[in-house]
């Protein structure tokens, strides 16, 4: 892809990480933070789940000592979310 596309992707990822870390999760809020139309978000990342995964992968790829507070928060929130999911799943399995 071209330079504009690369800049837009970086802008979207950085804006989304910031929004996720602050508890914002809508595409509209991410688009506002990035200063782009919502359509651009959907163009580069076809769904909110794909955008979230891209943000998480981006944050995890950065060496620990170079991660921003927002990137650390995103990784921590994902870890907690997954632990809660697996705990709930185990509880359901034990009931059956």
How would you describe this protein?
The protein is mainly alpha-helical. The protein has a single domain (3-95), classed as Tetracycline Repressor, domain 2 (Orthogonal Bundle). 78% of the residues lie in helices and 0% in strands. It contains five helices and no strands. The protein has helices at 3-21, 27-34, 38-44, 48-61, 69-95. The protein is globular, with a radius of gyration of 15 Å. The termini are far apart. The mean pLDDT is 85.
The outline comes out as globular
CATH topology: Tetracycline Repressor, domain 2
Q: Beta-sheet strand percentage?
A: under 5%
Q: What would you call the structural class? A: mainly alpha
**Poorly predicted spans:** none
Distance between the termini: 50 Å
What's the number of domains? 1
Mean pLDDT: 85
Second rung of CATH, namely the architecture: Orthogonal Bundle
- The CATH superfamily title: Tetracycline Repressor, domain 2
Q: Would you state the CATH class?
A: Mainly Alpha
Give the ordered list of helices and strands.
HHHHH
Number of helical segments with 4 or more residues: 5
Radius of gyration: 15 Å
What is the multimeric organization of the chains shown? single chain
Question: How many DSSP-defined strands?
Answer: 0
Largest beta-sheet details? none
List the SSEs and their pairings.
Layout: H1 3-21, H2 27-34, H3 38-44, H4 48-61, H5 69-95
Helix pairs in contact: 1-2, 1-4, 1-5, 4-5
Short structural summary:
By secondary structure, the chain is mainly α.
Search tags:
96 residues, mainly alpha, Tetracycline Repressor, domain 2
